[in-house]
User: Fold this.
Amino acid sequence: MFKKVLIANRGEIAVRIVRACAEMGIRSAAIYTEPDRYALHVKRADEAYFIGDEPLSGYLDARRIVNIAVETGCDAIHPGYGFLSENAEFSRICSERGVAFIGPSGDVISRMGDKTAARASMIAAGVPVTPGTEGNLSGLDEALTVADEIGYPVMLKATSGGGGRGIRRCDSAEELRQQYPRVISEATKAFGSAEVFMEKCIVDPRHIEVQILADKQGNAIHLYERDCSIQRRNQKLIEIAPSPQLTPELRAYVGDLAVRAAKAVGYENAGTVEFLLSGNEVYFMEMNTRVQVEHTITEQITGVDIVREQIRIASGLPLSYRQQDIQFRGYALQFRINAEDPKNNFMPSFGKITRYYAPGGPGVRTDTAIYTGYTIPPYFDSMCLKLIVWALNWEDVLDRGARALEDMKLQGVKTTASYYEEILKHPEFRAGSFTTSFVPNHPELLNYSEKRHPSEIALAIATALAAHAGL
Ligand code: ADP
Ligand code: ADP
Ligand code: MG
Assistant:
């Protein structure tokens, strides 16, 4: 087993990885840029290395990070999610320098990180994909021709996209003409690649993804599915495991498809195969070759520590479980608490956390790197906390979610927590029946009145009185 793991990430996922290392008796080394000087991942890791004043570039400097790992005696690097986690070159540099990369090989990352290459691999493996272009589009003319063939609405997608960006729905040729240059410029800016492709738009689908684990010995298993249909602008907000809207047959089918997909590309480590479902039709969408933000809910229902398995696999150990060992129990929900103002078009709300009281009690887990007095820097993601709840059945997990959201006190920044309380009350959500259109179809859920803490009300009254007295 490894002696020391360098964590090439920050925030809650870096803390999550430190925790797995600590339980396994492995030392952890953090890296940080100036705005993260007082970050929790730095405090919690056994060692921490400064990588520059500039907020972002240090976290993206593959060579420098691998150098630090070598110089400080780390035998492995965990990339987390985002940043360099799906960067094939990073995985290759690690293997050149004799540092284990906790993820798949560079070749597998290249094949699956490129969405058109991934589609081609899946077609070859007999996995159904969304109808669309075979490769990347050569230009607007080809886009218009393909759209006529597959029929509107269509989706224009950035080939190396991620995080819900670089995706546009086009309902007509006119819209396609408008959107085409926009997607290209967004893809170039966000992902450094102008490649785009086209898929048929599946109207009102459910987003179902399967967690898989595969070792170097050729074993591959799945840990069942997550339902991530509650999204805004193609970004996940609430994730659910297992999906309350799959029959046992469909569940078994997507699980098998995911394992087939992983085996077809010689996959190694933890990964997620994402599908869109429309009725009983299943379409492969993409594969994420890393640990996902929502891996937590799968851990809650199966009891498997996914990060621990990742580390074991990278060190050459076989999977700790066979498929028949994997069982799931109850339901888990994850709320992505983002520092955003739901009442103001989800505008980011960075700043100092004046008060944080963590929710607790039975069936509650929080993965976060915030604390009272911490200032959320504006340079990174707006997700500041993951609140995960588990209960034996669907009704109970909904009630537990509402209770835990109410338990939590997070002041100083606006968050999406209050919006999730509204979603939890909605009959369609409670009935366990929703598609990726749930959020856009229910703008009225944003018209709730703000609950305010007594101290905030007292402050508002004092301020008003002071103003009145001319102070
Ligand atoms: P998950 O699939 O785990 O739910 P998200 O799509 O929410 O993850 O992405 C997690 C983080 O990784 C976000 O910060 C997102 O911006 C970033 N990310 C994901 N894919 C890419 C990519 N291809 N390029 C750059 N950043 C990405
Ligand atoms: P990312 O890499 O950003 O996660 P995905 O390809 O996984 O991108 O798509 C993100 C989301 O966009 C999906 O969960 C789904 O809601 C929507 N989406 C993507 N492709 C399609 C499609 N062909 N039809 C309908 N919705 C789609
Ligand atoms: Mg995706």
About this structure: DSSP finds 16 helices and 22 strands in the chain. The mean pLDDT is 96. The two ends are 66 Å apart (CA to CA). The first helix runs from residue 11 to 24.
